[in-house]
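not sure who needs this but someone in the group chat was asking about DUF2927 domain-containing protein from Enterovibrio gelatinilyticus so here u go. i didnt clean anything up, its just raw.
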Amino acid sequence: MMRHLVLGLFLSLFTSPVLAAWDDDAYVEKAFELIALNNEYDDDTHPIRKWRQPIKVWIDHRVGDQELHTMLVRMHLTHLSKVTGHDVQLVDNLEKANLRMVFTRQSRWQDETRELWGANESYPFRGAICMAHFSVTKSNEIRRGLIVIPVDLARERGKLFACVVEELTQAMGLPNDSNEVFPSIFNDNTKNSVLTPLDVTLLRLLYAPDIHAGMTGNKALPIVSQWLKARPAWAEESKKLARQSEFVTELGLF
C-alpha cells in the first residue's frame, strides 16, 4: 500500500535566523536529521526516504513558456544527477514517467492537484506558492511523485526557479523545511533560489551508498557522522557543485 506525502514552498514572512556554519559537522548532522527524517506537515519522526529506481520526469505543459520551463527543469535535473550520482532524466511521455511536473495557472492548480493526486488528500494550499507530493512503498522507497507549479503566482512572487529547485530537490527525499537550517532552500525565511553548499551536502549524504531507504535515525545518523568526518576530501567539491547553479540568478526568474 502506498503512503502519500505532501511537500510545499511557502511565502517568507520574517527575516532569516542567525547564521550557522554549514561546514560544522554537528550542524550538518542536525540539519540532515531535521530535513531528511521529518515532514513539513506533521510532527512525527520518519525513516529515510529515497529513490532506488531511476527518476524519470515528464513535464506537463499547461501554460506559459514551454521552452523556458523545460530549460529550468533540465538544468536542475542535470545538477541533481551530478550531485547525487542518481539517474535523473527527462522523458517524452507520461507512460515512461514516475515523476510528473505540471506547469499551470493559479486559478486551476488546486483543482488539478486534487484531480491528479487524489481528492481525498489533505492539501495545505494556504500560503503555498507551489507543491510536490511523493509516494513511498512499505520499505520507504520513493516510487512516484507529482509537482504542481502555478506559473503566474510563482513569477509574481519571484519564485519560479525557486519552485523548480526546491520541489525537485525535496522530491529526492528531503521533504521538510526548517528555520534552523541556514543557508538553505529548505528555509522558507531566506531568499535562496539555488542549492547552497549545505543543500548539496545533504543531498550527497542522502544518496551515499551506505544510506538506505527505511533506515531509522538511530541507524542513519551514525553513518552520516562517519561520512562527515571524512568530509574534507569532498567539501570543496560540494562548494563547486553548489556554484554551478548560481549563474541562473542572472536570468531574473526569481
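also The beta strands are 3-10, 50-51, 55-61, 88-90, 99-104, 128-136, 141-150. if thats useful
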